[in-house]
Structure formats: structure tokens, C-alpha cells
Design goal:
By secondary structure, the chain is mainly α. The protein has one domain (6-102): Arc Repressor Mutant, subunit A (Orthogonal Bundle). Helix content is 64%, strand content 0%.
């Protein structure tokens, strides 16, 4: 008998993380994320939220914040450079988002 495992209704988080890491400095859409794991956009969004408990956008934002924290800790870049490398649209957007999510200013 042919059995489908629960894994069939999941996506490859490692492949998704690799895609995000490679493209983090750019704008990343849900359509691009879905395509990276060979799913349709709405199916991907639903599965992602179900498995991860957050939206794909929130997940990518978390990855951007993680990268920016690592870059800030290295201490040799301006906040503008950190914002750009972490994929934020600008320094003010980065500072606002970082402060909101981390409870402190990035500087």
C-alpha cells in the first residue's frame, strides 16, 4: 500500500533557510520563498504559519534582525551599512524595526 507521511505536507526548512541567507540583503517575497521549496504561494503561507507559528514575513524579519545583530557585534560597520546588508530599505526603517523587536536601539 502507498502511504503518505506527514512530511509530505511539510516544506524543507533547511532549503528555505539557505534561500533566505543567500538573498537576505534583497527584498524577499512570499512568492519567492514558496518557489524555493516548490509550493504555491497560498499553500506555502498556510503551511508555514501552521508549522512555525508565525508568518513568513515575520520569519524573514527575524533573520534580518539576527544578521544585523551579528554585524553590529563585529563593530566595524555603520548602521547604514548594517541596514543594507541585512536587507532593510534604509537606516531609519532598520532602526525602527530593530528597536521595536529588540526593545533597544541598535546603536
Amino acid at each position: 500500500a502507498f502511504e503518505t507521511s506527514i512530511k509530505d505536507s511539510r516544506f524543507d526548512l533547511e532549503a528555505l533557510d539557505r534561500y533566505i541567507e543567500q538573498h537576505l540583503a534583497n527584498k524577499i517575497s512570499v512568492a519567492q520563498l514558496a518557489g524555493s521549496v516548490f509550493l504555491g504561494e497560498s499553500q506555502f503561507h498556510m503551511l508555514f504559519k501552521e508549522q512555525m507559528g508565525i508568518t513568513p514575513h515575520q520569519y524573514v524579519l527575524g533573520k534580518r534582525i539576527d544578521r544585523s545583530r551579528r554585524l553590529i557585534e563585529q563593530g566595524n560597520l555603520s548602521l547604514g551599512q548594517v541596514a543594507e546588508l541585512a536587507g532593510f530599505s534604509g537606516q531609519s526603517s532598520f532602526t525602527h524595526t530593530f528597536s521595536r523587536l529588540q526593545g533597544m536601539s541598535p546603536s
